[in-house]
Specification:
With 470 residues, this protein is mainly alpha-helical. The chain has helices at residues 2-21, 27-32, 39-50, 53-66, 70-94, 102-107, 110-144, 151-166, 171-199, 204-213, 231-247, 250-256, 262-274, 276-297, 308-313, 320-353, 360-384, 387-413, 423-445, 453-467. The chain folds into 2 domains: 1-385, Sodium/glucose cotransporter (Up-down Bundle); 388-469, no CATH class. Helices cover 77% and strands 0% of the residues. α5 runs parallel beside α11 (231-247). The protein is globular, with a radius of gyration of 22 Å. Keywords: Cell membrane, Ion transport, Membrane, Sodium, Sodium transport, Transmembrane, Transmembrane helix, Transport.
Length: 470
């Protein structure tokens, strides 16, 4: 009962934010927050929007199998955000864009524009729904099943509340609610770490020393080029992941485009880019502390490392307060990513696909439609009930970002025009060729591609555009 009251109280606070930020809201408010957002609020809120509910439960578990090597990618993130801030943002602000894919129409043509928008809609809808599904399953399994709440009610209730507090104010509301949710997420994380330290009878200095001396505190892998955790693979992948999944993603860029000026948007981008190293260091440190606690208590570490944090936090072994904190943390992390995804999908459909930026009725219907699609997709994933299917969907989503990388790279770094009618075919063929290359390479050499597949996919799209240049 305490958990239900906590979640309801949390939602009530979000609705209060929505009420105050959606007064006299127009389509311009929904899409761009009237370009009046304080950069520091955007920066803080973007941390939570970038850290999904899956990250909240998965990153601590990463320390079990890959130590702290994920930080290598986080170092690459920093350079990626600098490139987005000083290469992409000036273009978006100069053209005064509502959606970033409008740039493709200006530079390459109408079909390139529609292709980029469509690839974003496909990948974001599936990816966001899968992430939200995983969070719903975790909450259901570790918290809500004990209260007798059906999964259907959980999904409809959570998606419905996201729709409710974003339906009027849109991106203006999200700037404030995401900041609040980021604050809740980090408070929950820090308090959970404190409770684990208490269970281990460690003070702060002793905990830092224990983590640093643990064998799982390894960060860098320099020599093993075959490893997916090799420094240069992860570092370079981190750069390109940020460029594509932030700089070329309407969901991630929409809040940045609400800043008052380019300079403020650049300060926002650089600030929250730097925050990812300490944020993920906290998550990984929690993972190491949980492994220490499991060894001391004689508890087997779960085979699915994503269950490491829920195993302790949601089962009551650390106390009922930690259950509440875990619930708040995972809800805050998942909501701050799902709400912005729903708003960005609505924006892209209305502005890019339908080209009716000022149609308020269309915007409201579209927003409700994507909320319903979220529910349908989540229930479909539950019906499939197969981890391999979910993994396959994630892989498909990663392939769909490659063509966006190729399209924007060709537009920004060349002066060639392309034969626009061929662009949709190039964007569809490139992931297929990329998949074939990955499969043949794995079967013939044993080498497994990691995140570098994104770069290969983008390169294939670039080459295809080059071959079809005018």
């Amino acid at each position: 009962m305490v958990i239900i009251v906590t979640i309801l109280a949390y939602f009530c606070i979000l609705l209060v934010f929505s009420r105050f930020t959606s007064r006299r809201a127009t389509n311009s408010t929904f899409y761009r927050a009237d370009r009046r957002s304080p950069w520091y609020m955007v920066a803080f809120g973007m941390i939570g929007a970038s850290i999904s509910g899956i990250t909240f439960v998965s990153v601590p578990g990463m320390a079990v199998k890959t130590d702290m090597t994920y930080l290598q990618m986080c170092f690459g993130f920093i350079f990626g955000y600098l490139i987005v801030a000083f290469v992409l943002l000036p273009v978006y602000f100069r053209l005064n864009l509502t959606t970033i894919y409008t740039y493709l129409q200006t530079r390459l043509g109408r079909r390139a524009y529609k292709t980029g928008s469509s690839f974003f809609l496909l990948s974001k809808l599936i990816g966001a729904a899968v992430r939200f599904y995983v969070v719903c399953i975790i909450l259901q399994r570790f918290v809500l099943d004990q209260l007798g709440i059906p999964f259907l009610v959980t999904v409809v209730f959570m998606v419905g509340l996201i729709w409710l507090y974003t339906r009027k104010g849109g991106i203006k509301t999200l700037v404030w609610t995401d900041s609040f949710q980021t604050l809740c997420m980090f408070l929950a994380l820090i308090l959970i770490i404190f409770h684990v330290m208490t269970a281990l009878h460690l003070n702060l200095n002793q905990a830092v020393t224990a983590i640093a001396n643990d064998s799982h505190s390894r960060v860098f892998i320099w020599q093993d080029w075959a490893s997916k955790q090799n420094f240069w693979k992860m570092f370079l992948s981190g750069i390109f992941i940020v460029i594509v999944m932030t700089g070329l993603d309407q969901d991630m860029m929409q809040k940045n485009l609400t800043c008052k000026s380019l300079r403020e948007a650049q300060k926002d981008m650089c600030s929250y880019g730097l925050a990812f190293v300490p944020a993920n260091l906290l998550f990984l440190s929690l993972g190491i502390l949980l492994m220490m606690l499991s060894h001391r208590e004689g508890i087997a570490i779960p085979c699915a490392t994503d269950d490491l944090l829920p195993m302790f936090a949601a089962t009551g072994s650390l106390g009922s307060l930690v259950i509440v904190l875990f619930t708040i943390g995972i809800v805050a992390a998942s909501f701050s990513s799902a709400d912005s995804a729903m708003t960005a999908l609505t924006t892209t459909w209305c502005v890019d696909i339908m080209e009716k930026k000022d149609d308020e009725k269309l915007r409201k219907r579209t927003h409700l439609g994507f909320a319903l699609l979220f529910v349908v997709f989540i229930l479909a994933f539950k019906a499939l009930n197969s981890t391999s299917v979910i993994d396959a969907i994630y892989i498909i989503c990663s392939y769909t970002y490659g063509p966006l990388l190729g399209l924007f790279t060709f537009g920004l770094f060349t002066r060639w025009q392309v034969k626009d009618r061929y662009v949709p075919y190039i964007a569809m063929i490139s992931p297929v060729i990329c998949f074939a290359i990955e499969t043949i390479t794995r079967q013939t050499t044993g080498y497994e591609f990691g995140y570098e597949l994104l770069m290969v996919n983008g390169l294939l799209t670039f080459v295809g555009l080059y071959l079809c240049r005018k």
